[in-house]
Amino acid sequence: MAAVAAEDVPLQRVPDLDSLQLLLRVASTGSLGRAAAAHGIGQPAASARVRAVERLVGVPLVVRSARGSTLTPAGALVADWARDVLQAAAALEAGIASLRDDGEQQLRVAASQTVAEQLLPRWLVHLAAERPRTAVSLRAGNSEEVAAAVRDGAVDLGFVEGPQPPPGLTSRTVARDRLVVVVAPTHPWARRRAPVDAAELARTPLVQREPRSGTRAALEAALHGHLPTAAPLLELPSTSAIRSAVAAGTAPAVLSALAVGDDIALGRLVAVPVRDVDLTRSLRAVWVRGARPAGPARDLLAIVAARAPDAP
Fold first, then answer.
1. What would the pLDDT profile of 119-160 be if each residue is shown by its tens digit?
2. Per-residue three-class SS string for the chain
3. Do both 37 and 117 map to the same domain?
4. 312, CA 20 to 30 Å: which among 43, 64, 89, 193?
5. Domain end among 71, 102, 133
């Protein structure tokens, strides 16, 4: 006889696993009431479940009497077969659990450059203390690239900047950041007393990130309505490159206060006061819509919630 593939076997008369477990409890306790109690349901529900299985199988399985409940010969056979089925199901459950446990030992994170450089390292130190066996991979990019990696399933969790949450993803604000205008100590703005207003900032050619970056999007949103807006004097792909260009006296830039705090403290850059423009922004964690972060992703979010800074 030719073997039949498992996926082609008809299963029209196979009871569900929960009903098979109930049948085995009837066999072991000799009482439908005790079996129902062990199963966590009432006796009427247990009776209805047994009758449904009998209708499905097509023969009586349980004999009820004043002295209790016993299995019929057919019921005993079904119970024997059910033990093998339930043991196989338990093995499958254990295997699935092991896959889940293995998966929880890996965490793939993507973050915008400000978060990746200034915040994530310390968050990951705390995660390593709580989950020493978790291997973390981190990729840095602009906010649009991070959002794309989350949507594609390339990472488990993302952190982005920008004025609006990325479309198609679940997001949670985890921190507040502030952008600051910085210049070289030799720049004329370094010695001015009056703050730079929004209109002047908008018409000044700046050293900026590429158009898809969260920092640039946040600045454009803050200056919305202050037209005309000057084209960037220079576009660079990283915060560190912009800091170097500004320190060399190229032009002003608008960067995260987290990224330039040390440069300002050491006198390499000078923070310029501004008025009439709100340069605070939200930093967000993002993940696939409809999913719920689990394992190390969930734990990292808890660490972030406890330790993320407000706008400096």
1. 999 999 999 998 888 889 999 999 999 999 999 999 999 999
2. CCCCCHHHCCCCCCCCHHHHHHHHHHHHHCCHHHHHHHHCCCHHHHHHHHHHHHHHHCCCCEEEECCEEEECHHHHHHHHHHHHHHHHHHHHHHHHHHHHHHHCCEEEEEEEHHHHHHCHHHHHHHHHHHCCCCEEEEEEECHHHHHHHHHCCCCCEEEECCCCCCCCEEEEEEEEEEEEEEECCCCHHHHCCCCEEHHHHHCCCCEECCCCCHHHHHHHHHCCCCCCCCCCCEECCCHHHHHHHHHCCCCCEEEEHHHHHHHHHCCCCEEECEECCCCEEEEEEEEECCCCCCHHHHHHHHHHHHHCCCCC
3. no
4. 193
5. 102
